[in-house]
Amino acid sequence: MPSAPSSRPTPPRRAAIVGANRIPFARSNGAYARASNQDMLTAALDGLVARFGMAGEQVGEVVSGAVLKKSSDFNLTREAVLGSRLAASTPTYDVQQACGTSLQTTLLIANKIALGQIESGIAAGVDTTSDAPIEVNEGLRSVLLAANRAKSTAGVLKALAGLRPGQIVPEIPANREPRTGMSMGEHAAQTAAAWGITRQAQDEIAAASHQNLAKAYDRGFFDDLMTPYLGLTKDNNLRPDSTVEGLAKLKPVFKPAGYPDTEATMTAANSTPLTDGAATVLLASDEWAAERQLPVLAHFVDAETSAVDYVHGDEGLLMAPAYAVPRLLERNGLTLQDFDFYEFHEAFASTILATFAAWEDPIFCKEKLGYDEPLGSFDRSKLNVVGSSLATGHPFAATGARIVPTLAKLLHEKTDQEGSGTARGLISICAAGGQGVVAILEA
Amino acid sequence: MSNDWYSDFVNSSFGRTIAGQVGLPPVPRLRRWEPGQPLLSGPALLGTATPDGRVAKVVRSLLTDLGIEVHDDPHAPVGGGSSTSKVAAGIVDATGLSSPADLAEIQGFLTPVMRRIGPSGRILVIGDVPAEATSPAVRAARRALEGLVRSAGKEARYGATVNLVHVAAGAENDIESTLRFFLSSRSAFVHGQRLDVGTVPGFAGSSQGVDWDRPLAGRTAVVTGAARGIGATVAKTLRRDGATVICVDVPSAGDALARTANDVGGSALQLDITADHAPATLLDHAARHGGLDVVVHNAGITRDKLLANQDRDRWNSVIDVNLNAQLTINDALLGSDVFHRGGRIVTVSSMAGIAGNRGQTAYGASKAGVIGMVEATAPLLVEKDATINAVAPGFIETAMTAAMPVGTREAGRRLSSMAQGGLPVDVAETIAWFAQAASYAVNGQVLRVDGQNYLGA
């Protein structure tokens, strides 16, 4: 592993998380089956604009992205902004880092604010698995491109004569790693088996996620974080009455290759479903927020991105955060136990459990991280206290922008209730391609 | 907006012919306000009942300052025409009556006015407050005006309105915003009504330097129930008049709320007004805008059931949203500096709260309760130079009324002196007028916006 810098230079200033808006997340081919990425992102932006009275205003930058993106959506964020109530003079760009996308866009906006390059910005992410791009297959593409290159009618006909029936079948995007051919679930199942993660432990995480999300809705936690869309007022993946006993009845859906059936522990309930949705976060300098008398929920402290070699079997596909978090802690002089809230993206219940197991394991911490002592465990009652991806669903690129304001609001509530002091939270998101993005917020 | 086929028909050229031949009642097209429109579209006749009248000179100076042609003689030729040419307004200063015998002077003035008043014209009778009189003869004369006005309202045609304003003793120089409202097309659907000015003592304010095209410029307003319907129109109307608008509605209506807020360049606050934290959240949000000048309690629900079939939960939800939430928020406003000196609270009552409505015991109770709240809150607000008033809409054309059965809808529309439903903007105009700083002397009032509906009249 690359050695971590033991400290970092003090940044010029910290970006503030002012507020957020997302649309409720919808299970694939459900409420948002006919909504495009651009539709959803525009709606989420417009809700944010309304919440903060910014109609016609220009913000420093809007940065967003989608994982499943049509080639015609190359300027997705710009098109969404042009269709929104923000000033058309608001600049944008697109970013894609799989499930880490909108935590990374938050980091990008926060960094520019910290450096004084912009005063305000909106980080966002959107994904649809319903209105997914469909490509022609490689064979048909070669034929069509050859025909396009031909200089004569005869040449075009000759190229088209190369068409074969099998080439008509389109390529539909699949949740599959290109370099291993394995689905993400199969990768996660391998990791779960390697770390001995039990079915019971996974179902406990899943049930808690649903129960916590339901309670958060009941207390109006999302009233200033969400705007209804297309008739949906809550995430429709939420099953408030989920229990460990109920979830135990489900059949496993992912099994690691070469393992016995008894090792099949991952079900539709302890794995995130395919989901559609969009989320946005408004960040700003403290000065910008103060001028408008807007609240500051929390500050963006620091972040770290990591990647692991899952291709050659060196590490599990979704284990990159296990490396990013220790580096981030070290750089900020913190331990794993120094947080009031832990927001871990529940790609699969087994993923976060494997990560926790790794941090408690002296061998992993010694051999992979180079530490004499393991990072240890932390108080699980502080984990995903208002639910996470297993309950909300997980529109890939939107998840970071769901989690950032969720944590910021939790921290704000805590300092508000206590009247003083600081509160600190940790965010961890694993991403396809063996990557991970983690961050610290403080209020 | 209109799905009023009958009105569209009798206002078409073919429909007019048929209607004339078979005697179908006409449905006048009402003139409505837009920025820049003159106060009156033509000359005015200004009568006085007695030499002791105290408001005629105030009215005359307002009209002549605006360049409006004013005549004292109801038979005067106007606008270069004849003694029967149409006029835009007939105004009577009916203050100073000493006995019912003085009413004859008013009849003598209004009889030609009724013949001469033009389409969407304005007949305004301005009298003393009956309760201020101790003499039976004087009080009888003052009270008689109301019967005169309400009956004349039922005779007026072509969208002309007839209304009565009582001016408290000493308040005659505090009526400019009221005069402007009743004379302008902002009061298009206010007909056959009475309003008292200056009756809550201790008021303070001024109408100096008001931009009458943007009378709410620089003021911040909250509108509850702003996602759609009348509330959304109120938000737009307040914005048109210059206010910054905070739009509030329940979280489940958040998408429509965001559209309204963005349309008016305001902010959206998703809030259940019955929640314990609602007043604090509202004031917190308002602090972003530097405080509040206007609060419009428009949010309301119906849970209609015959009383014989009503249950406790439905009953309570109506009382909570329509009444308790307003009381709680008003208490918070009174105790907070976020609600500025000179603030305005405007609430929405209903015809059902005045006349009652079958199936609406809970709604009717809540909307009658609103009137009690207004009456009791008005004097409490005086120390903040603030006011509270209510608008009581009659049949207003909204998505809700469009979904009514045809028979009920037609009855609702036609059983009024104007033979039509009002538009949401008619309610909004009245609210916007109450909200003006210049309406400082209008306090504790309930004004029906119903085209003189026959229910509870």
Automatic annotation (TrEMBL), chain A:
GO terms for molecular function: acetyl-CoA C-acetyltransferase activity. Gene3D superfamilies: 3.40.47.10. It comes from the Bacteria. Its EC number is 2.3.1.9. InterPro entries: 3-ketoacyl-CoA_Thiolase (IPR050521), Thiolase (IPR002155), Thiolase-like (IPR016039), Thiolase_C (IPR020617), Thiolase_N (IPR020616). Keywords: Acyltransferase, Transferase. Residues 16-286 form the Thiolase N-terminal domain. SUPFAM superfamilies: Thiolase-like. Residues 296-442 form the Thiolase C-terminal domain. It is an enzyme of class 2 (transferase). PANTHER family: ACETYL-COA ACYLTRANSFERASE FADA2 (3-KETOACYL-COA THIOLASE) (BETA-KETOTHIOLASE)-RELATED (PTHR42689). Belongs to the thiolase-like superfamily. Thiolase family. NCBIfam families: AcCoA-C-Actrans, PRK09268.1. This is Acetyl-CoA C-acetyltransferase.
TrEMBL record, chain B:
Belongs to the short-chain dehydrogenases/reductases (SDR) family. InterPro entries: KR_dom, NAD(P)-bd_dom_sf, Sc_DH/Rdtase_CS, SDR_fam. GO terms for molecular function: 3-oxoacyl-[acyl-carrier-protein] reductase (NADPH) activity. This is 3-oxoacyl-ACP reductase. It is an enzyme of class 1 (oxidoreductase). The keyword RNA-binding does not apply. It comes from Actinomycetospora lemnae. Residues 219-399 form the Ketoreductase domain. It comes from the Bacteria. Signal peptide: none annotated. It holds the Pfam family adh_short_C2. Its EC number is 1.1.1.100. Keywords: Oxidoreductase.
